Amino acid sequence: MQRSGRAAATTAVLVVLAAVACLATGCGGSRPGGQACPRGAELVPSCGVILGITPPTPSSAGLRAAEAALDHHFSLVHTFHDIDDTVPSAYDRAVVAGGALLHTSIDARIYGGRPGEVTWAAVAAGAYDAALTRAASGLASLRRPVFVTFDHEPDQPAKAVQGTPAEFIAAWRHVHDVFAEAGASNVVWVWVVTGWAGSANTALRMWPGNAYVDWIGWEAYDSRGCTGGRVATPPITFAQAALPFERTLRTGATTYGIDIHLPMMISEAGTALPPGGSVNADWFTGMEQVLRRHLEIRAVSWWDHDGSVPACDYTFTGDATLRRTAARTAAARWFRG
Prior knowledge:
Blueprint: H1 5-25, E1 50-54, H2 60-70, E2 76-82, H3 90-97, E3 101-107, H4 120-124, H5 129-140, E4 146-150, H6 165-181, E5 187-192, H7 200-204, E6 215-222, H8 238-256, E7 264-271, H9 287-293, E8 297-303, H10 320-330
Parallel strand pairs: 1-2, 1-8, 2-3, 3-4, 4-5, 5-6, 6-7, 7-8
C-alpha cells in the first residue's frame, strides 16, 4: 500500500489511541479474526502488539509444533522466499487460512546460488519482473492483507556484492510498482534491516522513501552463543538488542527523510543457545514492559530457528527454560494485537 502524509498522520493517531485503549481495557484482545482489537488498513493494531514467529521448520507441522510447545496461537507467521520462488507457497496459504497474518520476505537471491547472482540493478531493470508479477498476483489472490518485505537485511556487509544503497532503493521501488501494477493492493510493505550497530549508517542510506514503505522493521538478537562454540560476554537483554536502532532512526530521520511516525516492528527476535553454556533465561522476561514503554513498536516476531551460520541456534522451543518463559510472555494480554 502506498502511503501519504495523511496516512502517516493517521498512524500516529492510532498509536496514541492504542495507548489509551490499552490503559482503559488492559489491552484485551482476541484470536486472529476477532473484533476486540481490530487492525487498520495497514494492519496497525488498535491496541497491543502483534506477536509472530518463524518456526523451526517452514511448514504447517513445524508451526503447529511450535505453537503446541507454548500453548499459544501466534497472530503472525514470517516466511521467506527467493526471487524465483512460488509465492505464496502452500505453507503461506495455510498460514492465512489458519487466521494468522502472513509476513513474507522475497529475497534478491536464488537460494543455493552464488553470492551476488541477483543484483539490485538487475531487479530494478526488470530482469525478474515475470517472477515478481506472479508473486504479486499470487498474494493478491489471498484476498487478505499481507506483510511483504523485499530483500530483508540489505545492509548486511555480505550483500555489498548485490549493489549500492542507491541501487537497492531503485530495486525496492521497482518491486513496489510491479506489485501495484499487478493489482496487489492488499500488500503492506515492511522495510527490514538488521539493526546492527556496525551497519546502521548503511541501513539509513537504504531508505526507499515514505511513499514506498508502510512499516519500519529491524531485528533484535542476543548472539553470544554464536562465537564458534565459545560463550562470550554476558547475555544482553531484549531492550539492549532492540532499542539502539530506534534511536539511530530518530537521529537520522531528518537527514534521510524517514517518517518515524510509521508503525515499527521487530521482525526477528532471538537468543542463541550457547553450546554447553547457560541460556539467556531473561530474554523473554520483561519484553512486555519494554514494548509497553515503546508504543511505536506494534509487532514483534520471535525467531525460533537456527541461524545463518552453523554455530548459531535460536530454537528456543527446544529449551525448557526458554520455552517456559516464552510461554508466560506470550500469554500476556499485551500480545493481542
